Fold these 2 entries.
Entry 1:
Amino acid sequence: MKQIHFATTNEYKIKFANNLLRTHDWECVPGKVNLIEPQSMTQEEISQYKVLQAYEQLKVPVITMDSGFFISALKGFPGIYTADFFKSLNNDQILQLMEKESDRSAYIQQTLSINNGEEIKSFTSKSEGVIVQSTEAGEGYAFDAFFKPNITGKIMAKMTEGEKSLIWGEAWNKLGDFLNSSSLQ
């Protein structure tokens, strides 16, 4: 099994990434780095900036991951500010914010970037869905408690790991294909 560094020490992220990359004969190993997260207009720009920093610190090929939650009624907010948004508001407050909105559509997006020392490539997964009413919401961290992707029809907190791979898997599969076609083999 070939290995690639992943700029995170979050065990859940490593485990989830490995479940998807192992189908490509790759696995992630954690890479402890200190990253400055820029404020930018696109998730891809943020991911690429972070993977530049990670490569400079580790001096080996490395990947980074950025996720965001985009609410149509809020013109895409919180988007790239998702982490800070969920530090400021709890799930009940967010559901109250959406209570009178007729457009409850939203999407989640994940961007992976790899820096192999020669080039930077990015791969994105996007999953559209809806924010459920508070009566349908469950327990879970952040949007997992109330976001229902169209592809599964379940809130994320009630999805299996296999179902979650339907949501996030596209970017990881593209990364796996890239790794297998690159000089890192």
Note: The beta strands are 2-6, 26-30, 62-71, 78-79, 105-115, 120-131, 147-149.
Entry 2:
Amino acid sequence: AGIAIAVKEIIFDFFAGIYINTKKTFELEDRVEVNGIKGDVVNIRSLGFEMLEVGDRINGEQSTGRIIHIPNSFVFLYPLKNYTKAFKYVWDEITVEIPLDADVEKTKDILYDIVGENEILKTTPKKMEDAVADVTAEYRIYYNYLEPIIYTRVNNNHIELSVRFLVHPKKMRNVENDIWIKILNEYQNRKITLYKE
């Protein structure tokens, strides 16, 4: 019985491997997540694939250095998220909190300038526009606006400015770091006011 179960798993993994290679569910270097495990695909074999694990969103999704082996059958057993299949960019957001009496429009203008000056983000909307055009025949994906945008919300005793922009998942942490450093510089130069509890 044990042998039969083991053989069944091997056969299941083998046919799942054929499915992966035929349907191109993911390819080498794609960032995927399955069964709560997220990483960049570094190897695809007939019975399983290997990922270089990345940390969670809070920790910048950077590599942990661990290689994780995943049976091919996981693509049938669990939902699979592919962060880079249709196009190489995802939406990211950072939230900047300012006091209720702050100059919202002036702050937003400064934030737009900061995001617009980022070397990585400058070319992203055009690349994304081209990528969306390439996949619309296969996927029903439409974006009317690809430029960075800032949403405003009042939250109790302060204002939240959510800065939303497109970025490659592997460059997300570096972009966020660059933006925050520039925001802090503007704060230290007293050009914007940040909320303090």
Note: The beta strands are 31-34, 37-44, 48-54, 63-71, 80-82, 90-99, 149-155, 158-167.
